[in-house]
Amino acid sequence: MNLVPFLISGVSIGGQYALIAVGYTLVYGILRLINFAHSDVFMVAGLVMVYMTTSLPMQYALPIVVVATVALGFIIERVAYKPLRTAPRMSLMISAIGVSYLIQNLAYYLTGGLAKPVTNLIPWISDTITIFGQVTKRVTVITPILTVLIVIGLVALIKNTKIGLGMRAAARDFEAAQLMGIKINGVISFTFIVGSFLASIGAMLYFTNFPSVAIGSGGMPGLNAFVAAVFGGIGSIPGAVVGAFIIGICQELIKGLGASAFSDAFTFVLLIIILCVKPTGLFGEKTIDKV
Amino acid sequence: MSKILSIKDLQIRYGGIEAVKGISFDVEEGKIVTLIGANGAGKSSTLRTISGLVKPASGSINFMGEDLVGKDQAAIVKAGITLVPEGRRIFPDLTVLENLKAGAYLRKDKAEINKDLEWVYELFPRLKERHWQLGGTLSGGEQQMLAVGRALMSRPKVMMMDEPSLGLAPLVVQGIFDIIKTINDQGVTILLIEQNANMALKIADDAYVMETGKITKSGSGLELLNDESIKEAYLGKKK
Description:
heterodimer, A: mainly alpha, ABC transporter involved in vitamin B12 uptake, BtuC, two-stranded antiparallel ribbon, about 5% strand, globular, B: about 240 residues, alpha/beta, Rossmann fold, four-stranded antiparallel beta sheet, 10 strands
């Protein structure tokens, strides 16, 4: 049996999941919130891509996708999460679920509930190439490379820049961070902007390999990415990336072994096992108890 | 001596509870001023309000001719007031050096920041030795040093300290108070709140006693140290 093509596409899907998973993990790290709307932001990025690429030249369409997605993430935080800064975490979670459905309903209104076919493909990355004797689209190879580069850049940003220091300080202690003069709202907005930016890149890569975008298109990749983030240890960026690649590769190999129907089920079995055996995930937060 | 910080009729409420009931006091430039009092007297609330974490119900906080009420924490740190919070609140998963850099978050003068970093290392050589360690791995006394060092990195004119002796061994507490004196000698005005009234009054130039949201007594540190009622209430003297 030849598993190579499945391995290749698994690595690629892992990269796509990683770009979404980092968005979950970043927001969780700072707000302790599972941002349920994140997968819908991803779906909107796909829809915007379909609409823009059919009406504008590529060089304008793609930047618009990024800007629109980032703006959406920023607005969601300002409107639905910021007013709840001092509210119990449960309220924040309910608000996130509400935003998720709101976006899906708005998308339903916009699309009439029909799946929008991806017709105008992004050139170059959708060319067909041959790798390890397998014929595939170039995007399959580009995705994991681009993902790793982006994540390395992101980690460097968080480690070495002032806003990164602010993020790490605020993630641990809002009040102490404020006493340093760190503006919490600015740091949180920045976090959502970065998360949405990654989701927009992920969406463009994902939907290039996909026939159409529907209002529920964000659901499954979003869930898989969320499980990847939990698997890797939510709050940890390397954890989210490693988790995403493991899940992507395993899912595709399961398909390769002829059990396609179980590939998504595998994700959730993995989630249950992880939560039972190692609830903090592979790279879960170090807890330093000394006060 | 000029007043650097002047509090007038400050009222603080949490929901319906009045934590601070209209207090007024002054902090003179270059001095060590202490607020002493029991738990729940409103000392911490007062400092938290000055630093902008809590909004007062009424009253004014005048710092070098400028009213601070309604300004955000960043503006207040920038103006030159910093708070070393109760329980130290260092960032446990940042290194010692990163904690100190976080203290200088609003500053852009790189050369001056490095100078102040050397100054903090001079005050606390232990922090220099451990600059690469995670803050959370330090001992309690070292964490208090880090909290003070971090506050100094904003180059404050007034450093407020909330219970710096809390949970530390007596010998370590003595060390912390020596450092407070040294920092004050180098020109930083100190506003200190303490339950360890004995230590606080010994180093304070001016002192105020707070009881259930009001200032009930004031005087020099020495005066209050020898005041019979204070001795009974706070210094553990038997009748």
